[in-house]
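ok trying this again, last paste got cut off
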Amino acid sequence: MACITISGYPCSGKSRRAHQLKSYLEQRLEDPAYEGPKLNVSVVSDTDLNIDRAVYNDQRVEKPARAAYLTAINRRLSKDTLLILDGMNYIKGYRYQIYCAAREAGVRVCTVFVACTPEQAKEWHDARPAEERYDPATLDNLITRYEEPSSMVRWDSPLFTVAGDDEDVPGDAIWQAIMSGVKRPPNRATETAAKPPTDILHTLEQTTTSLVSLIRSAQQSLPSPDFGGAVNLPLSPVLKFTLALPNRNVTTAELQRLKRQFITAHKKAMSQSVVGRAEMDWSEGKIAEKFVDYLEENFNAS
């Protein structure tokens, strides 16, 4: 249903805001006035995934940790879950990856920016127990590298900012965004490939071979030297097609060449097929129909 990304400096209070938001959303869902679908609220955090703060000491270790976090997000994204992402989420490219995953899952998105100054974040960090602190150099590095969300970019919007002295999150506004806001469809970068049947190559070869044989037989029954005219191609008792032949003899070599070109083009379509862009009906009847159209187009172009 929705993916809510919490972002801010380390030790800025992201987890506190995530739990405030979780409590608010659960209360709204339990309200007798709520008449929408049954939803659950879930939080994904570094702590849940046992990602130690030490991974941020080395970018070579941090990268697989972020990948594990993104994998967990993908597993939990669903249309019956309000998913709150209580992670570092400090790199805009990483937030874009989350945005793409959410669009592919067909859920709404929003970002909550937990704002505070670097000095305040460091003060709150130093007040934590030793086991919850970052290495001082790592903390400085994370603050320096932090890329603040912007409402001007689609993957961070709608954007809600929570200041350090705010008592609570803007629950009402977030609720409206995730329950009735715009749900953007997948784009080409996030679309799922449309998988053709496993026997498609056999169907392509068998269907086109049968049609070539039928065309050769039908052409032989036409009066010579005028070979042109419409011929019937009964591929099966229920699949019958009509092909307009040109006023010349169409050789077997020409038919075989056009058949190879047709199959090659469809093999390419299979590898590039994407929902909403190159999806097609791979049934025997549709393949036969397209092959007949393909032949007529090439006969007319000759």
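PB: full thing came through this time. Residues 200-301 form one domain.
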